[in-house]
Design brief:
It is a single chain. It contains three helices and two strands, in the order E-H-H-E-H. A two-stranded parallel ribbon has the order 1-2. Helix 1 packs antiparallel against helix 2. It is globular and about 45 Å long.
Length: 71
């Protein structure tokens, strides 16, 4: 069996920034650091077998994941 890799993307850096701000856990340097890491990770997305965009609709995102997994 071969592993299937899935990159879960926020869709854009702007979307990630908005989500992190809503969580109230990230501010200042923590927020900047998290965004910098995420930007580097997003550059590697094409090396995965699938890119799954994490929509605001959790059920829709879960359904896409199930299709990828063949469930």
């Amino acid at each position: 069996d071969k592993a299937v890799t899935i990159f879960v993307s926020p869709g854009s850096a702007k979307t990630l920034h908005s989500r992190l701000m809503q969580r109230k856990g990230y501010r200042g340097e923590d927020l900047e650091g998290r965004l910098a890491v995420a930007n580097k990770e997003m550059l590697e997305a094409d090396s995965f077998d699938h890119i799954l965009t994490n929509e605001d609709d959790l059920d829709a995102t879960a359904a896409k994941l199930e299709r990828i997994m063949g469930l």
